[in-house]
Design a protein that fits this description.
Elements: H1 3-45, H2 58-97, E1 102-108, E2 115-120, E3 124-126, E4 131-136, H3 143-147, E5 151-157, E6 160-175, E7 178-184, H4 191-198, H5 215-221, E8 228-233, H6 239-253, E9 263-266, H7 270-275, H8 279-282, E10 289-291, H9 293-301, E11 306-307, H10 310-319, H11 326-336, H12 339-354, E12 362-364, E13 367-370, H13 372-381, H14 388-410, H15 414-420, H16 425-442, H17 448-473, H18 480-486, H19 497-509, E14 512-513, H20 515-529, E15 539-542, H21 550-559, E16 564-569, H22 583-586, E17 596-601, E18 603-604, H23 609-615, E19 626-627, E20 636-640, H24 643-659, E21 664-669, H25 672-682, E22 689-690, E23 701-706, E24 715-720, H26 734-741, E25 744-753, H27 758-761, E26 769-772, H28 773-782
Parallel strand pairs: 2-4, 8-16, 8-17, 9-10, 9-15, 11-14, 15-16, 18-19, 20-25, 20-26, 21-23, 21-24, 22-23, 24-25
Antiparallel strand pairs: 1-2, 1-6, 3-4, 5-6, 6-7, 12-13
Helix pairs in contact: 1-2, 5-6, 9-20, 11-19, 12-20, 13-14, 14-17, 14-20, 15-17, 16-17, 24-28
Bound molecules: adenosine-5'-triphosphate.
Adenosine-5'-triphosphate is lined by residues 194, 197-198, 207, 209, 212-214, 217, 233, 235-241, 570, 573, 605-606, 712, 714, 742.
Length: 783
């Protein structure tokens, strides 16, 4: 046996020993779970036996409450511990299958012994030898594995910087306890392991990359200091992956004070949520909160308006080119996305400090109780220097007081007596009990019948007034919509402003809020009513950040004042510029320079060398994108003649791709309407799924998907349904085309009915193959 074989045998022995210890530890936890289950069942069963219930007087009620609370806390605590043990078992199962993926031999300066550190998805401590057999990949010392080649190395420990020498770096692939590959590597993380990982097939769910995190990705993951971390990275450079491992890192590093509930990820669409849902659980962590910006807006806006869906706006922008009103709408979107518009709103709010607020009458049974004018007078009577939101609060308090006064007066009105006839038994019973209680407390004698009538009258009025109090609490006496509408009676320097105003007002009058108005309207409303900030969230992640406008960034910053922000994007994938300024470039201006860090990722991991060489030619600065050296076929452009031809061509191409072993194949269309068309053309020939905006779970297979829903996701093979000049001919469509092409991992086919898109035509011809589809079919058959 040679030295290397001996070394591998030693490694396998160690892996076996570690696996045996993990199995033993898992069995011990299983035992604890079993005992705890019995314990929990018993607490549940005897819950009320151990609680003393006595409701005779206030003291006894207090004691009863405390006793119930203690008992339920005991139960909660047991259940929490049980959950923890359960999660640990799951993690140990995974660890048993693959206990570690890396090893470093590190000698600290001043020490005589080299430490062998094995790195895996979580730590494993052996009680017998009192040592860590596996270190968590997020432990301080593990960063050496990701950051250094052999030689001098250092890491940040909680008690300061530790320097030393890295003597060995080894990588393993272990499956079901068997070491299938071992590599020693001099560089940071060797390419061999990456080759193995990236050569695999796309999954319906994103995977964790902890075994092969690259140095520059590690900078993103472990960044502790910045308030704003901007990651600008090429398509497939691992931005989303780094973001998710960063969440796992933060949960580990700050586990005492940070939980998954304190982290929020804004994702591009609901489908993406399901695509990334497995990464954190795979690492033994809970998923962070996830939402889309649209969902967040809707939740805050309530039902005041019919809010346009972001994807409907997108569909309009992509399909209505040249239609009347199109340019005005685009100019409107552009202006309403800008910080200039935010300043305009702030200027308007300044004016409203002095005059101009619009309130509505508070009516009761068709009568005006408190007129809008008296609310107006009260509001401005509070002084012109007091902030608007503060005055709104005072007005609301005043209104509640006024309502109480009217409520008392109302009791004597004749309608109350009439309504009393229709009360049910329960109401009578309630009033009888109230009167009896009063009697017991006061020991006064009074006329029971008369008092009961009074109580009943008060009940009736209270019930009728309840919605009024609710409205006052929710500031429904403010006509925010009309106020926002008046903004469009002002002057602004935006192109096409008059027409924008006309269109906006028409929509508002129809009760519709265009998507570009949603964030500004909410911002305005929040400024008036008092910003509902979210201080629970401590870390906000924004993926696909190039699609956010400067306005939206500034708004997000305001909503989460205590939060750090990680912004990940690629300006080359801006599928639709929301204005002249790209948010990703403006976001830095919202924070101070010293609290901001920017990291650029240029290496692309998703696609083969051939696909990256082809796609990077389409964009400015593309030459800086470094492909990972994984070889594949050149992209293929397929010339087709008509719809029939397209359908035949795509069906045959896909059958060929499936025969090659590809499982996730996407037919990417430009829009949802083109996707429907494609689906109808193809559904008799292939078993495929149509993905629409409502789709929330992502599955493997053949899918037909609109461009903007494919964002952030990847497929083994991509077929562009129509890559002709007609479909992707405008300069504004360049980045969209680049985005769809870069979804492919192994194979890229572009069908073109008629003249091919200039973005392909401009690309050097040696970077792709061009065929008619029949040639393509025959050339594949003859292979
Ligand atoms: N260090 C790594 N090790 C292994 N795989 C990696 C690594 N970094 C990225 N990948 C893989 O590359 C692919 C692209 O990663 P990811 O989706 O995170 O990139 P992205 O920059 O967010 O892409 P895009 O902007 O195009 O949506 C994924 O399959 C991911 O697993």
């Amino acid at each position: 046996m040679g030295n290397w074989e001996k070394e591998i045998a030693t490694e396998q022995n160690r892996a076996n020993e570690v696996a045996a210890k993990i199995t033993k530890a898992a069995a011990a936890i299983q035992q604890v779970i079993g005992n705890a289950n019995t314990d929990i069942k018993s607490i549940r069963k005897h819950f009320w036996d151990d609680v003393t219930v006595n409701l005779d007087n206030a003291d006894e009620i207090g004691e009863t409450y405390t006793s119930i609370k203690q008992q339920s806390e005991l139960l909660n605590e047991r259940e929490r511990r049980q959950n923890h043990s359960f999660n640990r078992i799951q993690l140990l199962k995974r660890l048993n299958n693959s206990p570690y993926f890396g090893r470093i031999d590190f000698i600290e300066h001043g020490e005589s012994e080299t430490e062998k550190i094995y790195i895996g998805i979580c730590s494993f401590y052996d009680e017998e030898t009192e040592s860590f057999l596996v270190y968590d990949w997020r432990a301080p010392i593990s960063s050496v594995y990701y950051d250094y080649p052999l030689g001098p190395a250092a890491y940040e420990a909680p008690y300061g910087k530790i320097s030393g020498t890295l003597e060995l770096k080894r990588q393993y692939i272990i499956r079901n306890g068997e070491i299938t590959s071992v590599f020693d590597t001099g560089v940071t993380i060797g390419d061999e392991l990456l080759q193995e990982v990236l050569g695999g097939q796309a999954d319906s769910q994103m995977k964790s990359i902890v075994a092969t995190i690259q140095k520059e990705q590690n900078l993103i993951i472990r960044n502790d200091k910045s308030r704003l971390l901007i990651v600008q990275g090429a398509a497939g450079s691992g931005k989303t992956s780094a973001a998710l491992q960063r969440v796992a890192y933060l949960l580990y590093r700050y586990r005492v004070k940070l939980t998954a509930d304190n982290i929020l990820l804004f994702s591009p669409n609901p489908l993406f949520n399901s695509y990334v849902a497995n990464v954190l659980p795979e690492l033994g962590e809970e998923n962070m909160q996830q939402t889309t910006f649209q969902q967040y807006l809707l939740q805050m806006l309530g039902r005041e308006f019919d809010v346009e869906d972001a994807f409907i706006q997108m569909e309009y922008v992509l399909t209505a080119v040249g239609q009347p009103g199109y340019d005005t709408r685009l100019n409107g979107i552009s202006f309403k996305s800008s910080l200039e518009f935010m300043e305009m709103i702030e200027g308007y709010l300044e004016e409203l400090m002095k005059s101009g607020m619009i309130f509505t009458d508070i009516k009761f049974l068709g009568r005006v109780l408190i007129s809008s004018q008296s609310i107006y007078d009260y509001f401005y009577g509070l002084g012109a220097t007091r902030p608007i939101s503060n005055r709104m609060k005072l007005v609301s308090e005043w209104l509640r007081k006024e309502l109480r006064r009217y409520e008392r007066q109302e009791v004597k009105k004749s309608w109350v007596e009439e309504e009393m006839q229709y009360l049910d038994k329960e109401d009578y019973l309630k009033s009888y009990q109230k009167v009896s209680n009063e009697k017991r407390m006061k020991e006064d004698t009074f006329d029971d019948i008369e008092r009961e009538q009074e109580v009943l009258a008060a009940f009736i009025v209270k019930r009728r007034f309840r919605p009024l109090y609710k409205k006052v609490k929710e500031f429904a006496f403010l006509d925010a919509a009309e106020l926002y509408r008046r903004l469009f009676e002002k002057e602004a320097s935006a192109a096409d402003w008059k027409k924008i105003c006309h269109e906006t007002i028409a929509n508002l009058d129809d009760g519709e809020l265009l998507y570009e108005d949603a964030a500004p309207f909410l911002f305005f409303k929040e400024q008036v009513e008092g910003f509902k900030t979210n201080t629970l969230i401590r870390h906000v992640f924004i993926d696909e950040a190039q699609d956010y406008s400067p306005f939206q960034f500034a708004f997000i910053k305001k909503i989460f004042p205590r939060s750090k922000l990680t912004v990940l994007g690629d300006s080359n994938q801006t599928i639709f510029a929301q204005g002249n300024e790209v948010g990703l470039e403006v976001v830095a201006s919202l924070f101070m320079e010293e609290e901001t860090e920017k990291i650029t990722l240029t290496r692309s991991y998703r696609s083969t060398l051939q696909i990256v060489e082809f796609t990077r030619k389409m964009i400015e600065g593309g030459d800086e994108i470094e492909p990972f050296n994984r070889k594949g076929n050149k992209p293929v452009v397929l010339q087709v003649n008509d719809e029939q031809d397209t359908a035949d061509c795509i069906a045959e191409t896909i059958k060929g791709l499936q025969a090659q072993g590809h499982h996730t194949i996407a037919i990417i269309c430009k829009t949802a309407s083109e996707s429907r068309e494609a689906y109808l053309e193809l559904k008799e020939r292939l078993s495929l799924k149509l993905i629409g905006t409502g789709k929330t779970d992502y599955e493997a297979g053949i899918v037909v998907i609109p461009s903007y829903l494919a964002k952030g996701i990847e497929f083994d093979a991509v077929v562009i349904y129509d890559g002709s000049k007609k479909s992707y001919g405008l300069e504004s469509e360049r980045r969209l085309f680049y985005t769809v092409c870069t979804r492919a991992m192994h194979e890229l086919y572009i069908c073109s009915k008629g003249e091919i898109s200039p973005f392909v035509a401009e690309t050097p011809a040696n970077l792709y193959e061009q065929r008619t589809w029949k040639e393509s079919f025959h050339s594949r058959k003859s292979k």
